[in-house]
Write a structure and sequence with these properties.
With 202 residues, the protein is an alpha+beta fold. It is built from seven helices and four strands. A four-stranded antiparallel sheet has the order 1-2-4-3, with helices on both faces. The model has no long low-confidence stretch (mean pLDDT 96).
Length: 202
């Protein structure tokens, strides 16, 4: 079994955030439709610019092997060896323009990220794990699923229960065994000038 990578943050945060991480090893255990509906319901209620809700998801589970293999084929070659063990895969897409006026939606990718973050927190609360990835084949997604031109396939998501790191191809194992690390607050929260730490985080 992969070891949970709960961290000890420098400042108090909710345990759902400290427990969340993105494993490569997934267990051979299905995710219930009830749980999946709740994950996407969490994404549904994410905030978005002008309440546009620009995100769309294409999802497949191993309950339908043909649909799962089809979606798996939309991941880059480097992601397929580990992602094929996850019981559920999804592709996150976002609109490129506002339905309201047809103008470019500069917040669309941000809003898809927020929806997927909400999905991930809900998953963590249910004992599930989500590994998001940018390594997808957008043109293949468009071809296989008929994605409209005004939408962009952007990210992949592997969803499931934590698996055994020893079941991973050997080259992926160190990724699940290495500690989680993050930059300290002063390196990304600035004050009077770019690169100068804000007094709020000193």
């Amino acid at each position: 079994m992969s070891l949970p990578k709960e961290v000890s943050p420098d400042h108090p945060i909710h345990e759902l955030l400290s427990k969340r991480w993105s494993p490569y090893a997934f267990a051979d255990r299905p995710v219930s439709q009830e749980d999946l509906r709740s994950l996407f319901e969490a994404a549904r209620w994410a905030a978005s610019s002008y309440n546009e809700q620009p995100w769309r998801y294409i999802a497949a589970s191993k309950a339908d092997r043909e649909a799962f293999e089809r979606l798996l084929s939309c991941l880059v070659e480097g992601n397929q060896p580990w992602a094929k063990a996850a019981p559920v895969l999804a592709i996150g897409c976002t609109s490129l323009s506002f339905a309201l006026n047809g103008k470019p939606n500069a917040a669309a990718q941000h809003d898809l990220g927020l929806a997927s973050a909400s999905l991930t927190v809900e998953a963590t609360a249910r004992g599930l794990y989500v590994h998001q990835m940018i390594g997808i084949l957008p043109d293949r997604v468009r071809e296989l699923y008929g994605v409209p031109d005004d939408f962009r396939p952007l990210t992949g998501l592997a969803i499931g229960y934590l698996g055994d790191v020893n079941d991973l191809p050997e080259s992926y194992r160190p990724r699940d065994l290495s500690p989680r690390q993050r930059k300290p607050l002063p390196e990304f929260v600035f004050g009077g000038r770019w690169g100068e730490a804000s007094d709020l985080v000193k």
